[in-house]
C-alpha cells in the first residue's frame, strides 16, 4: 500500500487492514484538498505515458493515484497486500476501467500481463530486497514502458526511507534513462511544508 514513515517510524507490525479506514485522512493519501489533488494529477500526467495505456499501481492503498491515472484514460490494475485497502480502492473506482487485486507488490498476481507503466509510491523503501523488486517490475513492462517510483526519506531523529542516489544506483543495472524530480520544496503535493527528502524517479529501462 502507499505508505510513509512521516513520524520517523517504519512499517513493521502495522496492521494495514486496521489502518485502512483512516488512511485517506493524510492529505497526500486521500487527495481531498483540491490543491493537493491537482498537484498529484499534474505530476502523474507528466510521469505516465501521454497516450492511454495499461498502468500497474503496486501498493495501491485506497486507490487515489489509480483514480488519477484512470481519469487520464489509462486502464489500471492495482495490487495491495491489505484486503481492506483493496475493498476501499474498488469502492473509490467503482464503475471505472480499473481492477484491484490482493497480493504482494514484489510478486503481483498478474500472470503474463505486461504494462506501459508500473507506478509505485512509498513502497520500495520498505522492501528487504529493493533491487530484486525493481528487476521484477522491469520485467512487467512492455518495450518502452516506464517505472514511476515516488519515494523519500522521512523523519529527522530516526530517518527511514531510501535516498534518491541509492535508488538511482539500484536502477543503473537496468540501463536506459533515469530522470529524478525533487518534490521537497513544493508544498502542494503534501498539503504542507516538508523538510525531508521527497522525490520521484521515472525510469525507462533498456
Plain-language structure description:
There is one protein chain. Strands 1, 2, 3, 4, 5, 6, 7 and 8 form an eight-stranded mixed beta sheet that branches. It contains seven helices and eight strands. The chain is globular, with a radius of gyration of 16 Å. It has helices at 16-23, 27-30, 34-47, 64-71, 83-92, 130-139, 164-171; strands at 54-58, 75-80, 98-102, 115-121, 141-154, 160-161, 177-182, 197-204. It has 206 residues and is of the alpha/beta class. The relative contact order is 0.17. The protein starts with 15 loop residues before the first helix and ends with a strand. Helix content is 30%, strand content 26%. Strand 5 and strand 6 (160-161) form a beta hairpin. Helix 1 (16-23) runs parallel beside helix 5. Residues 56-149 form the Methyltransferase type domain. This is Class I SAM-dependent methyltransferase. Pfam families: Methyltransf_11. InterPro entries: Methyltransf_11, SAM-dependent_MTases_sf. One of its GO terms (molecular function) is methyltransferase activity.
Task: Give a topology summary.
Blueprint: H1 16-23, H2 27-30, H3 34-47, E1 54-58, H4 64-71, E2 75-80, H5 83-92, E3 98-102, E4 115-121, H6 130-139, E5 141-154, E6 160-161, H7 164-171, E7 177-182, E8 197-204
Parallel strand pairs: 1-2, 1-4, 2-3, 4-5
Antiparallel strand pairs: 5-6, 5-8, 7-8
Helix pairs in contact: 1-5
